[in-house]
Amino acid sequence: TGRKIIFRESAWMKERMRQVGLTVYLSEANYLFFYGPEDLFERCVAKGILIRDCSNYEGLTEGHYRIAIRSEEENERLITWLEKL
Question: Helix (H, G, I), strand (E, B), or coil: what is residue 31?
């Protein structure tokens, strides 16, 4: 089912993002909230990758982001790009 796919992809994404040095916070939703380089949003946009800059959320700072869990192929593309940073 869709929920199982999201759960599986979310667990895989959390692990891989941590392996590339990002701080990933616990989440039960279909997105991941994480902390990374302050210029990550701009670098992603330049590559056509959309992430949500969360620095305007109350209590958060530059470097806080959110991404949606997508298809296995899209998630793999994002991780491959993040590994090159």
Answer: strand
pLDDT tens sequence across 31-77? 999 999 999 999 999 999 999 999 999 999 999 999 999 999 999 99
Nearest-angstrom CA–CA distance, 56 and 83: 26
* Entry pTM: 0.91
Q: How many degrees, rounded to 5, is the angle at CA 18 between CA 23 and CA 80?
A: 120
For residue 65, give the DSSP letter.
E
DSSP 32: E
How many Å apart are CA 29 and CA 6, to the nearest integer? Answer: 9
Helices (H), the chain: 2-19, 40-46, 72-83
